[in-house]
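Sample 3 of the quickstart, ligand nicotinamide-adenine-dinucleotide:
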Amino acid sequence: MTGNHFSGKTVLVTGASSGLGEAVALAFAGQGANVFAVGRNIAALESLALRVADIEGTVFVCSADLQKASSCRSVVAGCIEQFSGLDVLVNVAGKHAVSHTADVSEAQWQEDLGINLSAPFFLSQAAIPHLLKSNGNIVNVASIAGLQGQPYSAAYCAAKHGLLGLTRSLALEFINTCLRVNAVCPGGMDTPQVNNMQFPEGIDFGLMMRTAGLRGMMQVADVAEVILFLASEQAHVIHGAVIPVDMGKTTG
Ligand SMILES: NC(=O)c1ccc[n+]([C@@H]2O[C@H](COP(=O)([O-])OP(=O)(O)OC[C@H]3O[C@@H](n4cnc5c(N)ncnc54)[C@H](O)[C@@H]3O)[C@@H](O)[C@H]2O)c1
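Result:
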């Protein structure tokens, strides 16, 4: 998108210290937004803030572990304190651990559901009163793992399927308001999450490769553009949508 579509708007982005979240934060800042950038790696967030200093918007960095509902509430409260309102919540933070189902501990299951599903719920719960005041919107970053099964990824798949259910449920609950809630389902992107993925012994790589895109990996900046469009006024008719952004991976 070209132009200054988010000038004066406040956008809360989670997972902003790397990968897609960083690209989303930079893209909103490039459109003049006040970006409340949440992540766990403060050095990476500070480097993001330095890069934003050269472009249109402003960025305020916030270090938080979003595993707890109380952290999610504090993050939203911090954003409101900093920028006096909220126009867009983009739930990007997530984690994909590849494991044999037999090896998934209760703690790992809870952690995968915590960041991929519970955090978007509790952030949305805290953000919605503010988004209702600003005619704002939420964009959830799910995955093609929310649309189809992926081997050795039961918790991740369950959480991303759940995130699509959350998106649709909120879209209906708030159908009589101006709030919009949408989700994108990216295919493979060239990010630290993918590049540092650990594969346990004994997995069937043939099965794993079924999840690879036929047109290769996407760049995060291109996926960020789709998110910007969805969050913009130009997408005011898009509500409750689940949009694959996967270069055709889930077409069949
Ligand atoms: N990379 C891909 O191929 C791909 C494909 C589909 C969907 N996605 C989704 O895109 C999103 C971004 O992933 P990415 O590929 O950029 O990976 P990434 O590892 O670069 O980014 C994930 C971010 O989430 C943050 N995060 C993880 N756990 C957290 C916690 N407990 N509290 C706070 N922050 C936490 C990390 O710090 C990191 O900044 C994720 O939701 C992921 O599931 C990625």
